[in-house]
Specification:
The protein is mainly α. 70% of the residues lie in helices and 0% in strands. It is built from 17 helices and no strands. Helix 5 packs antiparallel against helix 7. The longest helix has 29 residues. It starts with 11 loop residues before the first helix and ends with a helix. 39% of the residues are buried.
Length: 352
């Protein structure tokens, strides 16, 4: 397919996908809060299929990079904008928990043993890895991804984006996500083909939509995604995300392939709502980055509260849905509250 000039119009369908993506990411972080103990193959299938929502975020990020930035790319302005609206909120939201954990909390369970007596190095380690929160690993990886934009542009201009994807994807399937999401370079290598697929999907957006208008092809995507989930649970006996050391060899990360298939399913289905005004999903989408920064602390606070109240119950898919709804709505309310107080400066604090 030929390289096309990116369309400049705002795509509601991709915006809605972003809103759905952050909800699914929150859902993946709410299992402990919902007290749903995975104890059957059916539950494990749902659990494994609902995780790895970061793939959606990376895919959307690649799509929007081409759609918005590529045609008028200026590396200095691009990186400055990312530093102000991505890196600064990350530093702000990370600083207090990092300082508390390093100086008052004994360093934390993931901190390398050799750094527990070296406070400044420990602080630097947390900022570089993002391991202060189970969600914040994404930012160091994202900043590396933004930093290699000149290379990304060369790939786009070569008109071989999909070929590069096919070359890199097997590497991702072999290396998996890093253990505890600690290594941002490992994460970059893992997610890079997803980012490039997002770019390729922006370049060829209309062709993809035309191809997937046929409901039989959507059904094929669904059947393939379900089949991969079943293989993961029954054949590979692997629950949740695939994590391992970079050089160790094991089964391929078919969960990544499943999520890529679902990315195309989402963009094809949501295209039907391009002209629809889904106001609730719009609000979640526009605040998605702020909700991303806020929700881990809220989830931890609610888990701590239920523990102190000794509130125990039999969790299930309904309690998971309820926990996800509560965390999403409260995070949204907090984001709007911060926005009301700090106005435009809130972008430096929570990215919105």
């Amino acid at each position: 397919m030929l390289l096309k000039t990116p369309q400049r119009k705002f795509l509601n369908s991709i915006n809605y996908f972003r809103g759905i993506a952050i909800i699914l990411i929150i859902l993946g972080h709410c299992y402990e809060l919902s007290q749903w103990r995975i104890s059957s193959n059916v539950a494990d299938f749902f659990y494994s299929s609902s995780l790895n929502g970061s793939v959606y975020f990376v895919f959307i990020s690649g799509f929007l990079y081409h759609h918005i930035f590529f045609s008028k790319f200026n590396y200095k302005k691009f990186m400055l904008k990312k530093a102000k609206y991505v890196l600064l909120p990350y530093i702000f939201c990370s600083s207090i928990p990092i300082l508390y954990l390093v100086f008052l909390g004994g360093g934390g369970q993931y901190l390398p043993e050799g750094l527990k007596e070296k406070s400044l190095l420990a602080v630097g380690w947390y900022f570089v890895t993002g391991r202060i929160s189970y969600a914040y690993w994404y930012i160091p990886m994202a900043m590396l991804l933004f930093a290699i934009s000149p290379l990304i542009n060369k790939i786009i201009k070569s008109q071989k984006t999909l070929i590069v994807c096919w070359f890199l994807l097997p590497i991702s399937l072999i290396i998996h996500r890093p253990v505890n999401n600690i290594n941002p370079v490992h994460s970059l290598i893992y997610f890079l083909p997803v980012y490039l697929l997002g770019i390729w999907s922006s370049i060829n957006h209309q062709e993809i939509i035309n191809c997937l208008q046929n409901n039989k092809r959507k059904i094929i995507l669904i059947v393939a995604a379900v089949s991969l989930g079943i293989i993961q649970v029954l054949l590979f006996q692997k629950s949740g995300n695939f994590h391992k050391e970079f050089w160790s060899i094991t089964v391929p990360d078919i969960n990544l392939v499943q999520k890529i298939l679902l990315c195309f399913l989402f963009i094809s289905i949501l295209n039907a709502y391009e002209s629809a005004d889904l106001s609730g999903l719009k609000k979640i989408a526009e605040t998605s980055f702020a909700v991303y920064f806020i929700h881990p602390f809220l989830v931890n606070a609610l888990i701590s509260l239920t523990s102190k109240l000794d509130w125990k119950f039999q969790g299930n898919i309904l309690t998971l849905a309820l926990a996800t709804l509560i965390v999403t709505l409260i995070s949204l309310a907090i984001a709007y509250g911060i926005k009301a107080v700090f106005k435009q400066k809130s972008r430096y604090l929570i990215g919105w």
